[in-house]
Amino acid sequence: MKEHLTSEELANRAEALLFVEGGAMARRKLLSLLGCREDELASALQELDKLLVGRGVALVQTDNEVCLAVAKNVSGTVQEALKRELSRDVGDAGLEVLAIVLYMGPSTRARIDYVRGVNSASTLRTLLARGLLEREGNPEDAREYLYKPTVELLAHLGVSNVQNSPDYATIAAELADFERHHGNTERTIE
User: Fold this and answer.
1) Considering only CA atoms, which of 171, 158, 107 is closest in space to residue 135?
2) 45-93 pLDDT per residue, tens
3) How far apart are CA 24 and CA 128, in angstroms?
4) For residues 96 and 117, what is the distance between their CA atoms, to the nearest angstrom?
5) Is residue 159 part of a domain?
6) How far apart are CA 106 and CA 101, in angstroms?
7) Would 149 be classed as within a structural domain?
8) In 106-172, which ranges are E strands?
9) Are residues 150 and 95 in the same domain?
10) Given phi > 0 = left and psi -120 to 50 = alpha, else beta, which region is 22?
11) Do residues 103 and 156 both lie within one domain?
12) Does the pTM exceed 0.70?
């Protein structure tokens, strides 16, 4: 028997799913995850939109997608904070993450954290915001993303492709060896 949820309960669940997604989600996917009908989703999203009025995030909808975004009333604060954050150097942590992604290939956050030995979430956010990395869905596991270098990063480094990075073959081999000897079972370098 299917659990019957109120619009408010569906709205709360939709908010949680959109928060975890961290970006736009197809309406069809949200509908499937919530296990409700189209009219119930519409009511839940209308409820969520009302609940978010005056808050720091807002609901953004198109015909096909839904996402949580920074609300207009606080966008100036967020833009100023990002401007301050992006004016700083990427630092050692950023360089480590960039090296892992450049020399090991597209990597999940778990793989990056494993190699570095620390949580890389904030560093990844900064590198994404600066346009040095991009993320895409992992075809092997829909619950996680793969991070990879952007064209802008390669242009900044003055290389036409990743394999032209300095000492690519040597460093890539050493990182692959590290991964093999330390038991990481994630995707290895081809």
Assistant:
1) 107
2) 999 999 999 999 999 999 899 999 888 898 888 878 767 765 667 889 9
3) 16
4) 11
5) yes
6) 6
7) yes
8) 133-138, 141-149
9) yes
10) left
11) yes
12) no
